[in-house]
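Quick one, T. Sequence first:
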Amino acid sequence: MGCLSVLFNLIWILTGGWMTALAFLLAGVVFCVTIVGIPLGRQAFKMASLTLAPFGKTVTYGGGAPSLVANVFWVVLVGLWTAIGYAVEGAIFCVTIVGIPFGLQLFKMAKLALCPFGAEVR
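Structure tokens:
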């Protein structure tokens, strides 16, 4: 990770990234209380790791048909409104030149919010 990524991640964390990551972490814990919710909890933990420090991380997608079916349930339960929120916020950030790097990270999170099953955050 380069110096610019570290700086942007620091700005991201200080301006609220830690709160969103904490919310996803708590949601993951709540999902993991039941055995049925563990797959959803794992995806919430994945969202928390990307939300805490998104600069310098990439998301690769795959997984095939089982991931597609699981993603449909995720979108209905959690993902649609989360993705809409990230996309709207990303569009607002992209209005200014200074906000474009942050807006692009929000678009990355919106895509992950729609399809977390089969995705890997690196």
